[in-house]
Amino acid sequence: MAPTTAAESVVLLTGGTSGIGRAAVRRLAATGATVVTVGRDRERGRAVAADVTAETPGRVEFRRVDLADQSAVRNLASAVDDEYDRLDALVHNAGLSSKERRETADGVELTLAVNHLAPYLLTHDLVDLLGATRGARVVVTASSVHRRGKIDLDDSEDLDALNSRSGYDALDAYARSKLANVAFTLELAERLRASARTEGVVANCVHPGFIPTTGLYRDVSWRAKLLTRLAGAVPGVGTDVEEGARRLVAVTTDDAYADRTGLYVGGDGPEQPSAAARDAALRERLWRLSAALVGVDPDWP
Ligand SMILES: NC(=O)c1ccc[n+]([C@@H]2O[C@H](COP(=O)([O-])OP(=O)(O)OC[C@H]3O[C@@H](n4cnc5c(N)ncnc54)[C@H](OP(=O)(O)O)[C@@H]3O)[C@@H](O)[C@H]2O)c1
């Protein structure tokens, strides 16, 4: 997204109805961009679209989509592909943590489905539109929590492990999904670079900071809620949605990130992600399993 063409830019940002995403929608629309945003809550989504469109030079369009549903993700991609002839940035920001193990209609554990598989499938289905847009960017809201994530893909139980079938712990499932975000971004960056179809498309991920005031912590255990509140009260530990949105939007629009790819970016710029996220064999395996879970050919873009 070069600043000179900001007014023509089209951004698709998931999870713009609340928290970091809602603040990021406003910042993006302030550049004059058209922002298509999605979430499940129609009322909050319509309010964001109306308020931000009225108050900024940009335009915000809300679509009600449940990203846990793979057919809804496919429909979203095809609607964006039909309606727009460019996609300057695809920002995967929607995310959740679920206190109990829930399974989607597609038979996938909910945290994995929304936080990782939806970005995988949406990027897959929009990769040609991204490739056709000069300087397009893919940005993923990851987390420093990815450092405690484990993805054990050593045996035939791969899918079960990824799906938390062998025992569920909410924080482990969330951390695993955030590790998947970083591993996916790094693998995507390499693949985008290697494909003639996606010349110039970059992929980076962001840690927005620990922000205890968002909706992310609404479905965690009472113990986790208490710990989050306590940690948030310690000076210097937490930050706010504006800082999270600032980080996300910087990677999405700043010239400094236009030609950089495969980065994990924190508050002070690029950081080294965990060893697991950098493990090329794990990334490749995760890529193939993700393709199988959403029913696409893994050899893309
Ligand atoms: N807050 C933190 O401390 C923190 C730290 C590191 C990373 N993050 C990451 O930041 C991102 C944004 O989270 P947040 O903290 O701003 O939390 P939030 O206020 O709960 O926002 C989450 C957004 O995701 C959307 N979403 C959740 N499930 C969805 C689904 N099934 N389909 C469609 N949209 C869905 C929500 O929309 P609806 O409610 O309308 O469905 C909402 O707009 C997440 O990826 C999170 O993992 C947060």
Automatic annotation (TrEMBL):
Cross-referenced CDD domains: retinol-DH_like_SDR_c_like
Domain of life of the native organism: Archaea
Gene3D superfamilies noted in UniProt: NAD(P)-binding Rossmann-like Domain
UniProt-listed Enzyme Commission number(s): 1.-.-.-
InterPro entries, per the entry: NAD(P)-bd_dom_sf, SDR_fam
Enzyme class, spelled out: oxidoreductase
Pfam families the record matches: adh_short (PF00106)
Keywords: Oxidoreductase
Signal peptide range in chain numbering: none
GO molecular function: oxidoreductase activity
Name of the protein in its database record: SDR family oxidoreductase
Naturally occurring in which organism (per UniProt): Halobaculum marinum
